[in-house]
């Protein structure tokens, strides 16, 4: 309430805007982060991944590994390149991920019948048992999220909106 | 169509399930990735960040830097720890990010009046000019996304659903 705080800034007194100071109009044009689509998607994704990682602490499973094991379980025999591309995982990262699953005895690369240069991916018997436990843990995690959203209809609505975001122009 | 492919697996013939093979029921219980909330959030977030990064190729700006500059513009003088916590950025990552913004001459740390040990963050005059350009580029990026979603109402609906995801239980 002192003169110092109520006095208008120098630029306003002189009647010409300074280019190196933000005006009230500039500041009004800067959105709160809470309204920014990318920022909100990132925060929600981090929240869900954190919950996922905590759910899988004992099984030591990360979201990308879950995705790869799910695809191998549903469609055994796909090639490395096919799964990597479908999941949007870079080749080098995918190789490291498969190396890790092989070391843990959960998955294996087999020479593909049709193309000796590429490998098809399969669960091992231990991988099959792991996937059964994984699905039980995952179901509890996902059900919590669906409940937070308000139910399966709201989940479907969210996924429909996310479809629109990634749709090709 | 040969006998080899139509013959039931050994386990089914013997009438007891094998624990190291997935049954049809197991496989039915494994969700398609397209229906998984975390997977869909991640894909949408990567899409939006990729579009952001392409929009800002010339200005060499990453999403986290955009967030920090926005907060400094709207609320100059916040402390490092306050901004880092608000944005959910780890301390070490935040320090590296601020170092980079300082090297580019866009922002500066000033000793806080109230606590000599902490720093308050401010845009430099060059940072102010940068933020004005940044907002113009960002607005075009965000408008494309809102259009893809179907308009501001759908954007608000998406953000409301994301609110629910991250809400405390």
Element pattern of chain A in H and E = HHHHHHHEEHH
Would you count the extended β strands of chain A for me? 2
Total of domains of chain A: 1
CATH superfamily of chain A: Winged helix-like DNA-binding domain superfamily/Winged helix DNA-binding domain
Mean pLDDT value of chain A:
89
Number of helices of chain A: 9
Sheet having the most strands of chain A: 2 strands, antiparallel
CATH classification class of chain A: Mainly Alpha
Textual characterization of the structure:
The structure is a homodimer of 169-residue chains. Chain A is mainly alpha-helical and 169 residues long. Chain A has a single domain, classed as Orthogonal Bundle (Arc Repressor Mutant, subunit A). In chain A, 63% of the residues lie in helices and 6% in strands. In chain A, strands 1-2 form a two-stranded antiparallel sheet. Chain A starts with a helix and ends with a helix. The N terminus of chain A is likely disordered. Chains A and B meet through helix 4, helix 5, helix 8 and helix 9 of A and helix 4, helix 5, helix 8 and helix 9 of B.
Fill in the keyword field for this structure:
disordered N terminus, mainly alpha, 9 helices, 169 residues, homodimer, Arc Repressor Mutant, subunit A
